[in-house]
Write a structure and sequence with these properties.
Layout: H1 11-29, E1 35-37, E2 47-53, H2 56-74, H3 79-91, H4 95-100, H5 108-119, H6 125-145, H7 147-160, E3 162-164, H8 165-171, H9 178-187, E4 198-206
Helix pairs in contact: 1-2, 1-7, 2-5, 2-6, 3-5, 5-6, 6-9
Length: 207
């Protein structure tokens, strides 16, 4: 079962669970990543790379899954997520700022806002934040349903730092991530049968 009390964890462990969250949810509702890493590179502490799901509802959850996994692990929501989402909402209205902060495009919070804005038209910033929160809760519920898988991937990352497809398969070998996550998705009326095609473009999620 996921931890239920608030707990403090070191930055490396938090990063491992963050990337494990991305990887597990991507494997369950999108595409299994080709690689996952917690080696610092550039401005990121970790990253995972997988083909992008054609479903915007899946993409937004996968981008949120890192912070959702941290929340399940520590018992509290990361302030960084709220900061990134708030800043992304501001950036959408100012082309000059978007140019000045182009590197921010790689942040999970920015990607989440872009995906949410592609799905609907919102009349206020609060409505955008509300939709982000809705998908965040679904991602967190999905990861909680397969927490043993998140722990297995995070443990493997803490040991090896980098996992290719074989390493990820090994970590997930004895855990069913599909049926529990699909049950959560269906309960929220997601993953409709006519939305199951996948795109072949590459994407990476960074912590």
């Amino acid at each position: 079962m996921p931890p239920r009390k608030r707990r403090s964890v070191d930055a490396r462990t938090r990063t491992a669970y963050h990337e494990a969250g991305h990887a597990v949810l991507s494997a369950a509702i999108g595409n299994k990543p080709e690689h996952v890493s917690i080696r610092p590179e550039g401005h990121t502490l970790g990253r995972s790379g997988a083909r992008t799901s054609a479903r915007p509802t899946s993409r937004v959850q996968i981008h949120l899954a890192g912070f959702a996994a941290e929340h399940v692990l520590t018992g509290r929501r990361s302030r960084q997520l709220d900061q990134e989402v708030g800043f992304a909402i501001i950036l959408r209205l100012d082309p000059g700022l978007r140019t000045a902060f182009a590197a921010f495009d790689e942040r999970d919070g920015h990607r989440v806002v872009l995906e949410v804005l592609r799905m609907a038209v919102f009349e206020s910033d609060d409505e955008i934040k509300g939709e982000v929160d809705r998908f965040y809760d679904i991602a967190r519920e999905s990861l909680s349903s397969v927490w043993r898988a998140v722990e297995a991937v995070a443990t493997a990352l803490l040991k090896h730092e980098d996992l290719g497809r074989d390493g990820l398969d090994g970590a997930l070998d004895d855990v069913d991530i599909y049926l529990p996550v699909f049950a959560v998705q269906r309960s929220h009326r997601l993953l409709l049968r006519d939305e199951t095609q996948l795109e072949s473009s590459d994407t990476s999620s960074g912590a």
